[in-house]
Amino acid sequence: MLRDLVGLKGPKYGCGLDVCKSCTSHINGKAFNPCSVPVSKIKATDEITTIEGLANKETGELHPMQQAWLDYDVAECGYCQPGQIMAAIAKVKQARANGHEISDTDFDELRNICRCGTYFRIREAVRAGAAKM
Amino acid sequence: MHVTLADARPELLLNQLTGGSNSVRSLYTPVRTAAAIAKSRLLQTAATKWGVPTSSLTVKAGVIHHAQTGRTASYGSLAVAARSKKVEQVAVHLKDASEFKVVGTPQKRIDALAAVTGKKQFTMDLDVPNALPTMVCRPPTIKGTVKSVQNLAQVKAMPGVTDVVTISTGVAVRAQTFGQCIDAVRALQVTWNGGSVDKESDATVLAKLKAASLPLIVPPLLTKYIDAEFVFPFASNTALETNCAIADVRADSAEVWAGLKSPIDVQEEIATSLGMPVTAVKVHVITGGGSFGRKLFGDAAYEAVEVSHKIGKPVKLMWHRTDDIRHGRAHPMCYAKIRATYAAGNVVTYEQRHTSVFTDFTHGLGEALTATASKLPVGGLGFFSETVFSLSQSVPYNFGVTTQLLNEVQLDFHTGSMRNVYSPNVTCARELVVDQLAAKMGKDPMAFRRSFMKNDRFRAVLDKVAQAGDWGKAMPAGMAQGIGFHAEYKSCVAVLVEIDCRPATVNRKVRDGVTGPRITKATIAVDVGLPINPLGLQAQMISALSDGIGLGLTQSIHIKDGLPLEGSWDHYFYTRQWNAPTDVQVFVMPANSADPGGAGELGVAASLAAVACGYARATKTMPTTLPINHGTLGFEPLPRTPSIPDSPTDGLDYAF
């Protein structure tokens, strides 16, 4: 739906099985994987944000997490990174909702595959991005 | 200056190949030369325009200045005027290394902004008119073929479906969306002919490898010795972007878009298959979403061309993930046998026999001449493999009489090179035996390696990780350090890891995944002769470390009755955050050469070896099958039919 009909190509196809998490986007501010949600389960009032909608709409200013990705030169091939960024933002917010900053335990719950293996830089960037969120 | 990817250009011969960690090595001087020629033309253009001598001009950050008049002009503003109307031979003087301002300094990726905003375009993101989503229903065993389709008309009538057609690899479906393709593929009722390896499973393949293993020569009679054998199962490249391509085949021409590392060979193959001249086939090279060797072959491009040719319409063809693992190319299983003899503080002989399922090198070295040579029936089998093996493999230690030999077993799996090709397995086996030798000879593993190293460059990276990684520090029972070393591509690297094999770590629970031992820390020192971009180089090492961790601990393919059982990353356990180290340091050794060595694959072998050696030291058990968890199937395999599994619908339950 998102890619073929709406034309938003930021979320990537990596498996279609809710495994690789390349398509991670936000529904009402929470991370989810559109590949595993039929359109029938989406309500008219739901707000869905893909990577394309993350930067400030008026100023075009990047989200702090996107900027951290640039600062730490995280991306290699870049295919998974929109999903990584969307998942990271939600994970930081989830940790805060639980009363703490993102921890190693929280990182271990991120399932997004990065086949270029940039995991260590992702950890560095998420902490830096979180500090500015 | 924006350097773009060229279409397949046969006149480039073997200069259009991405592979062998060769890009920086092969492009360093040509790019510098091209840049110097461009700069000299731009200066001449400004000098002519302003009527001043070239010698009076200076350049800073792409802007030409004339001090006396205060005039400035950017390179961009002069580019059109500076172009040459005729081909002419020119000579330039390349800058001395002492004048480098950019080479050797950290530079960020130029496509990073596009990547983090979702604007970076991969093949499936391109809008080619009328190239509709297309997927293929594939056989239940590798290289099976279609015997008959029972319900072709019904499937063709399904929502959105425009075409259903039998092709050499299965039944292709073209529809308005990929979701409709999946539904249609799953609805197809197909009777299949057998495949090429229907009777093969892990055990039968291993038995064939063992039977074909070349004999060790040195009789272990007069000296002490170590014999060891290792098994490395099949492994899949699994780039995040699955095999995919867009094709538009017309009556007398064809146009293809795909991520390709050997585009000239792919263009030749397509032209041959369509009976068209090469000049009628346009092949556009698109940036790939990972490759790790997979895109050396144009499998998806050939398939897209076949479908488009048969239905007479453009197609945007994509493999499902499950198909990509089960029917995509894999690094073949191999069996390694080593005998080392030692006496009086010396290693007297070192013999390594590497026996592998045949690796397909028919992509050649980037053009039709070598590709044809690698496809010759007589002398073809093994010739290319042995050449690659003997050119890439060497022992970095002074171990007396040393032999490393490759033998291959011809089994018709889909194979190909995977990042670092033979080296991860060969090096891992060797480094595990080196640790055994050190133990038998009463030496510390680091000191042992150091004393037998063939040169000071090798010793320097070892020393660096030993010092920075605090080699020999006290660790709790169940934890250990492991060291791995590898030299290739005129570069060398040492990897020092810390591994936690304590039950509390090993028994961590993760939904639909495996945990096991964890690499908690890694210290890496890399010497590439001349580091061009240390930031990118460090990224390559971090990346290779993730590969080595997966290959050592969790990530393998299980073959059963002619098909891999794995169907996603919840089966094929490539490293994820929960198994990634929380502390990584990469040291780039200072330049010691005028030329850069290769690095893209370099770190995989040393990382795998370090992980394996660390595991052996922590558990006091030398692993003989890598990854260590291959013996336990950590998942419930997906059905073989239909080839594409059902799409989950419970995604919102996992929203966070």
Helix share, percent of chain A: 25-40%
Count of spatially separate domains of chain A: 1
**Can you identify the CATH superfamily of the domain at 330-619 in chain B?**
Aldehyde oxidase/xanthine dehydrogenase, molybdopterin binding domain
CATH fold annotation of the domain at 330-619 in chain B: Aldehyde Oxidoreductase, domain 4
Give the strand tally of chain B. 24
Largest interface: A-B, 70 and 72 residues
Main sheet of chain B?
Answer: 7 strands, mixed
Percent strand of chain B equals: 15-25%
Would you count the extended β strands of chain A for me?
3
Task: Please give the share of residues in helix of chain B.
Answer: 25-40%
Architecture of chain A, CATH level 2?
Orthogonal Bundle
Flag low-confidence runs of chain B: none
Question: CATH H-level name of chain A... which superfamily?
Answer: [2Fe-2S]-binding domain
Distance between the termini of chain A: 30 Å
Oligomeric state of shown chains: heterodimer
Q: Using the CA coordinates, give the radius of gyration of chain A.
A: 14 Å
Helix and strand element order of chain A: HEEEHHHH
CATH architecture of the domain at 330-619 in chain B: 2-Layer Sandwich
Uncertain residue ranges of chain A: none
Structural class by helix and strand composition of chain B: alpha+beta
In the CATH scheme, the class of the domain at 330-619 in chain B would be Alpha Beta
